[in-house]
Amino acid sequence: MKQLLKSVLKALGLLEFAKAAYYRRKKTAREVLGIRRRFWTTSPSLYRRVVKSGGEQYQLERFLQNVKAGDTVWDVGSYVGIYSIFSSHPAGRDGAVYAFEPEPAAHALLNGNIALNGIGNVKPMRMALSDSNGKGRIYSALTDAVAIHSLRHYASLSESGFEIDLATGDSLVQEGRVPPPDVVKVDVEGADYHVLKGMRSALSRPECRFLLIEVHLSCYPASEQASGMSGRQ
Fold first, then answer.
1. What average pLDDT does the chain have?
2. In angstroms, rounded to a whole number, what is the distance separating the alpha carbons of residues 210 and 171?
3. Are 84 and 73 within 8 A, CB to CB?
4. Is residue 187 classed exposed, middle or buried when 0-12, 13-18 and 19+ CB atoms within 10 A define those classes?
5. What is the spatial distance between Cα 131 and Cα 71, in angstroms, rounded to a whole number?
6. pTM of the model
7. How many Cβ atoms are within 10 Å of 121's Cβ, its own excluded?
């Protein structure tokens, strides 16, 4: 009976929706490019994000294909650590993944996913990268249905937000707190301009060979929109 119901839902294109709506386990296994990892999925929206890679299956696979043994990976805007947790495998024992996630609930899930997989080379960083050092505020989603948070305020986010630590990527490298990256992912919901501005030197190093970024051009100055901003300028 169970198999019949599953077949019917699959034929109707409703199987994934049903899984998300009625999932029983709070831990979900996922395999990408032969790498199998587990994640805490404590809500339907988080379950969908894990099983669908947040709609970024191609981007995730492309990113993982560029992570080599011994690499230093920066995952800027790590959320619950999907990119970080998977990147830990190709980076290997001699590599390290720095997962930057300042939002309290997401950072807690990130730590939980690191522990769940018994990973030792992912370093959770409870801070946001920007173009200045100091303090800032991050705004969280009002409901689980919107799985985003940002340094920029949107209508779908809370009004008050949380105070967080800010740092430039370049200052972290200069102070010896984090090694310069070989591979970088940036997904920060509209704050990408400030992140890139604060890590120009790190991105310009010859060893930094791959950058995956979600770009929000409307948040860039007009001069940068016209010319196109590159971390290697």
1. 83
2. 20
3. yes
4. buried
5. 24
6. 0.81
7. 18
- Euclidean distance between CA atoms 62 and 16, whole angstroms: 24
Q: Show me where the domains of the chain are located.
A: 25-215
Per-residue burial over 194-203, b = 16 or more CB atoms within 10 Å of its CB, e = otherwise: bbbbbbbbbb
DSSP 118: T
**What are the phi and psi torsion angles at 193 (to 5°)?**
-60, -45
**Helix boundaries (H) for 168-221:** 169-174, 192-197, 200-204
pLDDT in tens, 34-47: 999 999 998 888 88
Report d(CA 199, CA 221) in Å as an integer: 17
| CATH 3.40.50.150 correct for 25-215 | yes
β-pair partners for 36: 31
Within 8 A by CB and 6+ apart from 215, the residues are 192
Q: How far is CA 98 from the centre of its chain?
A: 11
